[in-house]
Amino acid sequence: MSIKLSERFNALDSDITFRSSDEVLFRVHRKNLEVCAEGFPPSGFDTNGEVVDLTETSTTLDLLFQFMYPQRHPSLDTTPFEVLFPLAEAAEKYQVFPAMNICHIRLRDMVGEHPVEISVYAVKHDYPYLVSEVAPMMLKMSPVKVMEILPPAHDAAMGASSWPKHDEGRHLQSSNT
User: Whole-model pTM?
Assistant: First the structure.
């Protein structure tokens, strides 16, 4: 099996190597990770030359790592949702601050096409203005559907246990009965 290397992130003087879920290696500089993100190992952490496996695809990591170098960042203006959403999740997961801002701004533009996914993202990562933009669309859904969509810790925090519940016949039942 041949080794696949990122064309963009293959620096000979790199000091950490990541492997994407689709087996592409990214050789990057810890200093850049430290300055732009909080979710990666600090420079004092020694990987002993081992490759660090990540769960994200090479497409996602290629975009994510671009936000950690002193260069013009990708604009994401024409990035499709199928690419943007995993990038936004990765930016939040690894706390890549330069990417986090542009991702949630771009997701705001896609609320009409992807309200369910964006509502989960907004609640999970605490973007209340996104939640408020998605709320009118969510009100048109059954409470059961909303509760299925929201992460468990968040529906309880929002008082979802006291919401009226729909059964399959669309009859309202109080959750207190």
Answer: 0.79
